C-alpha cells in the first residue's frame, strides 16, 4: 500500500450502508465531495452534508447504482458481504476506487483504505496499519494529535515566507537554510501556539540569523 493524497473536490463519493461505519465515512468525505449514502435504514447520528437515499442495493442492481452516480470512490459499508462483493465489481467496471469496510488483509484491485487522520489547516497526517489493526491506527492518532498544534499555521507562514524569499535575491541554498531554520525554531512554534508574540517577527529574526551564518 502506498499512501497518496486525493483531491475529491468536484467528485462524487457513493457510500452504501447507513450504519455507524457508513456514517463516519460519509462525514469524512462530505467535507470535500458530493457524498451520497444509499441504505434502507440510517443509524442515528451525523452523516454530515451527505445526501441520504433510502433504498437497498442488491447484487443485481449494484452496477446501476454506480452508473447512476458515477462516483470517483465507492465505499462498501453494508453488513452484507455479497452486496459488498457486487459493489467492488461494479466500482472496478466503472473505473472507480473502492473502499471495503468489512474486510482487512486481502484487498481487491483498485481498493483503498481510509486511514486515521489528523488535520490542522493544510497539514494532514494519515495513519494506516495496512488493515492489520484499525484500533492501533486510532490509538496512534490520539497520541500524535497534540503534536500537530500550530502545524497548519506554520505551513501558512512558511508558505508565505517561501514566496517572499523567492522574490528576493537569495540563492536556492540560502532560501532552503532559512526555511529549514524557521520550521525547526522553538520560538516560532511557541509564538504560533500561544499567540503571545508575533510569529512573523520571530521568523524574520531566525532568517536574519541564517544570513549572518552565511556571511
Ligand atoms: C481495513 C479498514 C477498511 C476501511 O474501512 O478503510 C478497516 C476495517 C475494519 N475495521 C474494523 C474494526 C474497527 N475499526 C475501528 C476504527 C477505524 N477503522 C478505520 C479504518 C479501517 N478499518 C481500515 C484499515 C485502517 C488501517 O490500515 O489501520 C479508521 C482508522 C478510519 C475510519 O474508518 O474512519 C477508524 C479509526 C478512526 C479514528 O478514530 O481515527 C475500530 C476502533 C474502534 O471502534 O474503537 C474497530 C474495532 C477494533 C478492531 O477491530 O480493531 C473491522 C472489524 C469489524 C468487525 O469485527 O465486525 C474491520 C474489517 C475487518 O477487520 O475485517
Ligand atoms: N471499517 C471499519 O472501521 C469498521 C468496519 N466494520 C465492518 O463494516 C460493516 C458495517 O459496520 P456498521 O456500520 O457498524 O454495521 P451495521 O450493521 O450497524 O450497519 C450496516 C448498514 O448497512 C445497511 N445495509 C444492509 N444491507 C444493505 C443493502 N443491501 N444496501 C444498502 N444498505 C444496506 C443497513 O441498513 C445498515 O444501515 C460491518 O459489517 C463490519 O464488518 C465494523 C466496524 C468498524
From TrEMBL:
Which intervals of the chain are annotated as region Disordered?
193-215
Annotated Siroheme synthase central domain ranges read 120-146
> Could you say which enzyme class this protein belongs to?
oxidoreductase
Q: What is the lineage of its organism?
A: Archaea, Methanobacteriati, Methanobacteriota, Stenosarchaea group, Halobacteria
Which keywords belong to this entry?
NAD, Oxidoreductase, Porphyrin biosynthesis
The signal peptide stretch is none
Tell me, which GO biological process terms does this entry list? porphyrin-containing compound biosynthetic process
Q: What domain of life does the UniProt record list for this protein's source?
A: Archaea
Q: What Pfam families does the annotation carry?
A: NAD_binding_7, Sirohm_synth_M
Show the Gene3D superfamilies listed in the entry: NAD(P)-binding Rossmann-like Domain, Siroheme synthase, domain 2
Q: What's a Gene Ontology MF term here? A: precorrin-2 dehydrogenase activity
Q: What is this protein called?
A: precorrin-2 dehydrogenase
Chain intervals with Basic and acidic residues compositional bias: 198-215
Catalytic activity entry: precorrin-2 + NAD(+) = sirohydrochlorin + NADH + 2 H(+)
Q: Which pathway does the protein contribute to?
A: Porphyrin-containing compound metabolism; siroheme biosynthesis; sirohydrochlorin from precorrin-2: step 1/1
Amino acid at each position: 500500500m502506498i499512501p497518496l493524497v486525493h483531491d475529491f473536490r468536484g467528485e462524487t463519493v457513493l457510500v452504501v450502508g447507513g450504519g455507524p461505519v457508513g456514517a463516519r465515512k460519509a462525514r469524512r468525505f462530505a467535507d470535500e465531495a458530493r457524498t451520497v449514502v444509499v441504505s434502507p435504514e440510517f443509524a442515528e447520528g451525523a452523516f454530515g452534508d451527505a445526501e441520504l437515499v433510502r433504498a437497498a442495493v442488491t447484487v443485481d442492481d449494484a452496477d446501476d447504482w454506480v452508473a447512476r452516480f458515477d462516483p470517483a470512490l465507492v465505499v462498501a459499508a453494508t453488513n452484507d458481504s455479497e452486496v459488498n462483493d457486487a459493489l467492488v465489481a461494479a466500482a472496478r467496471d466503472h473505473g472507480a476506487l473502492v473502499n471495503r469496510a468489512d474486510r482487512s488483509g486481502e484487498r481487491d484491485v483498485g481498493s483503498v483504505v481510509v486511514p486515521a487522520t489528523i488535520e490542522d489547516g493544510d497539514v494532514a497526517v494519515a495513519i494506516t496499519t495496512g488493515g492489520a489493526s484499525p484500533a492501533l491506527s486510532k490509538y496512534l492518532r490520539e497520541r500524535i494529535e497534540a503534536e500537530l498544534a500550530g502545524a497548519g499555521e506554520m505551513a501558512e507562514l512558511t508558505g508565505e515566507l517561501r514566496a517572499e524569499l523567492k522574490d528576493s535575491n537569495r540563492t536556492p541554498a540560502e532560501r532552503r537554510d532559512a526555511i529549514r531554520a524557521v520550521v525547526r525554531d522553538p520560538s516560532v512554534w511557541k509564538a504560533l501556539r500561544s499567540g503571545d508574540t508575533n510569529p512573523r517577527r520571530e521568523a524574520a529574526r531566525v532568517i536574519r540569523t541564517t544570513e549572518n551564518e552565511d556571511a
